[in-house]
Design a protein that fits this description.
Blueprint lengths: L27 H10 L7 H4 L11 H12 L7 E7 L2 E7 L8 E6 L2 E6 L19 E6 L4 E9 L2 E8 L14
Length: 178
């Protein structure tokens, strides 16, 4: 077997540079053109499931409800959704500066709504406002069989506990073998 020695020529016989083993460099200009050509918009229900209205019967109210909730998603107040077990979830909402009398939590038609309205307690002139204590309304969809177990306000954090309550006919049955 004959092995060819490495030539001093920086370009081999195939026209490739041995110092760039992955080929020619991608020009930054072509990447910038691609990046600016892509529109930046959030995905909606219609984008994710464009033909869902045509492929289902009786789901229109639920789809309309999901569209309404996703269209009006505020960024304030911040919140976390935490799963503790298969049948328990927590919703933690940061509501610093609000008292429990200034917050209303309601559930109607599988939609949880949290509203915060502060009474004006500010004394004096505000020189700098860095604390966001504005009124808010936060709406979240609740899945079937999930119920609000309780709500607590502690140290500026509203914690709402959800439990999954399956009806007896939906629970698995154990069949005795005779």
């Amino acid at each position: 077997m004959h092995i060819q020695p490495y030539s001093n020529d920086p370009w081999d016989k195939h026209g490739k540079n041995p110092y760039e083993p992955w080929g020619p460099k991608v020009h930054e200009d072509s990447y910038k053109k691609w990046q600016t050509a892509q529109p930046k918009k959030p995905a909606t229900i219609a984008d994710l499931f464009p033909r869902l209205d045509r492929l289902s019967i009786g789901w229109s109210p639920l789809l309309d409800q999901l569209k309404e909730i996703t269209d009006n998603k505020p960024s304030y107040p911040p919140y976390d959704i935490v799963s503790l077990k298969d049948d328990v979830n927590l919703l933690n909402v940061a509501v610093a500066g609000f008292t429990k009398d200034e917050i209303a939590v309601t559930v109607q038609d599988s939609v949880l709504t949290i509203e915060g309205r502060q009474s004006d307690k500010q004394r004096g002139e505000v020189v700098y406002q860095g604390i966001a204590t504005r009124d808010f309304k936060l709406s979240l969809a609740i899945a079937e069989f999930w119920e609000v177990a309780d709500a607590k306000l502690e140290n500026g954090m509203l914690v709402i506990k959800f439990k999954k309550e399956l009806p007896e006919e939906k629970k698995p049955k154990v069949i005795d073998i005779k």
